[in-house]
């Protein structure tokens, strides 16, 4: 190597040493890196050779120049050499631990379901048990009629309809266990919702034997009032008159016709006047007054057929209005065969007179002879509302208990031109008239007939021939 080249090399070396010193002075002090926490995972084993010892730039240049090899481009000061043989750092994926799902919600849901199901089953069992034992149910006596040939299924359904039991299936099962199928006796039976199934079966499979007394036959004629009927029951030692009137007017026995009665009955003297169906009944001495009432209610309910209710709807009149008008016809008509024409007179007055004064003597008699003497505190508003000479239209309630002939006569609504009628009470002959003049003539004729009848009777007593 010549001197010029040596000088050049020395100058370069010095310059590199100066640059290296400046770079080291400007570099910050190295900070010790914290060693990563030891890992329990197995470290990969590297089979690569260890990197050779680093050579300073000056030594590298000298070696190059002495060997005569061309110089390689130099790295920037401070740059680190990367050995291509060195293994690349391995990025390790963090292994995420699988979160274990909590079983608590499922356990809670299952527990809640089982608890709820237990409550429901318990309520069902308690409900059936209470029904079978009659616990917490009404103690009101109800009349039940078992028809001929009724099966256990029929009886169970009837008991459910009447509100005596809630589960026909449970009753049929109990009846089968008690071997009562086929032993039920047709006829009248008094039962209560609070009876246990055992008691119900015993009641329905036994003959009705009343321990209080003997059987009593009582007949209520057409046109009888409730007060007279109550007195008749008391006279036959069946029940007290006051108890009968209280329970009969209270009602609420669940019969169909009761649902058709007006809610407001403030002007009525007797709420259920007109609903004691005239007939012959068999009671027992010392009988429960509610049982007496239900036997009578049942009879009336059976007479009110669907055809009769349909006719009432066709006429546009309620059951209470039809019974009220029928009670007037019952009292006014001398015989059943003239009831249709008597009813036509009152229909004509209702439709054509203004005010529609029916002018029926029996209504005045009911106000004066029945209402006024039997009111604890006299109320003329009620009494006068029954008097059809004072008040127009129908009275607020019936004035007696009509029979089926009077009810059907009203429902027929026979068309006539008559507005008046008069009857000879001795001969039972009724005379009808279209005008007031004709009516007055009929009244005069009836008076003559009475006079002739009286003269004939007097002559008979004196031994004279007429």
Report what the structure shows.
Among the domains are: 84 residues, 2-Layer Sandwich (Dna Ligase, domain 1), CATH 3.30.1490; 202 residues, no CATH class. The strands form 3 sheets. Strands 1-2 form a two-stranded antiparallel ribbon. It has 466 residues and is mainly alpha-helical. It has 16 helices and 6 strands. About 5% of the residues have low confidence.
Compact description:
The chain is mainly alpha-helical and 466 residues long. Helix content is 47%, strand content 6%.
The low-pLDDT segments are 30-36, 38-51
The helix/strand series, from N terminus to C terminus, equals HHHEHHEHEHHEHHHHHHHEEH
Radius of gyration: 57 Å
Structural class: mainly alpha
Describe the biggest sheet? Answer: 2 strands, antiparallel
- Global morphology: elongated
Strand order across the biggest sheet? Answer: 1-2
The tally of helices reads 16
Give the helix level as a range of percent.
40-55%
Strand fraction band?
5-15%
User: What is the β-strand count?
Assistant: 6
What is the average per-residue confidence, as pLDDT, rounded to a whole number? Answer: 82
End-to-end separation:
199 Å
